[in-house]
Fold this sequence. Notes:
Blueprint: H1 4-9, E1 17-20, E2 24-28, E3 38-42, H2 54-74, E4 79-83, E5 94-99, H3 116-129, H4 136-142, H5 145-152, H6 158-177, E6 181-183, E7 187-189, E8 191-195, H7 204-210, E9 219-222, H8 224-227, H9 241-257, E10 259-266, E11 271-279, E12 285-293
Antiparallel strand pairs: 1-2, 2-3, 3-5, 4-5, 6-7, 8-12, 9-10, 10-11, 11-12
Helix pairs in contact: 2-3, 3-4, 4-5, 6-9
Amino acid sequence: MPSIFSRIVSGELPAYKVAEDEQHLAFLDITPLVEGHTLVIPKKEVDYIFDLPPAELAALHQFAQRVAKGVQAAVPCRRIGVAVIGLEVPHAHIHLIPMNNVSDMNFANPKIKVAEARMKELAAAISAQVPGATGAARVAALDTKGGRETEEANEPTASATSTAAPNAALGQLQQLTKGLYFVSESDAPLEAVSFPAPSGSLTDAELAKLAGQPADTKVEKQELTYFLRNHTADKGVLGDAALANRFKALQMFLKQELEDVQVYRFGSGPQVPVLAFGKTEDGKLAGFKTVLTET
């Protein structure tokens, strides 16, 4: 199964790209230790970085050096820390981490949440500072949803693209959720969902209706990263790194391709229906549903 990074390289998944050449890619980590935390990878899928042939290993570090200069120029910091862990994703990668103190490099620290607008800003700022990356800022911007929106506004086919976007989002979600189960005290499948654009802000009663629950059902909100935290850990709740990577891919898609993503829990145990969705480019809702078991 291709790693989540290979799917970014192929264009199957989006990323906040900051630099790219024929053999390498650099993009922002979506669960960073600090703002500007960047991942540098070879496009060739190799599990362990030190399995790369010497020339390719040297080329990867030379590319990382260029990217590090861009990160340091764009993000105020004393140094750019460099780390190779090799356990999170089965695809060789280098962490470049802006740091002012040694503790900034501690991977046991809680990951921070960076707003989408800020991620776009960081990606563009770093890309513009990477030596020799002429035109890279435009590439980086277009590889995020906001960048594509800007570009499509100037294209004659923009209306057709906008019309197809909801179906594309649902199709991608169906692929990403296929065969995935949310594990609590029992297992429940994840199922992709899509709803018409709401006329206004969603009330709890309207949310309950979407979930097929009575209008007076209590609705609790949760942040997506928190809700999926056990499934996106290094080996996930089942100790399976491949499954954990699939949940990471789903989380990345939701957070980067949809706006205002939120998880909604309905009622209390033992069976708690859950909806997780955000807005597509034309305002429709898309995401997934599942059931959480709490006894």
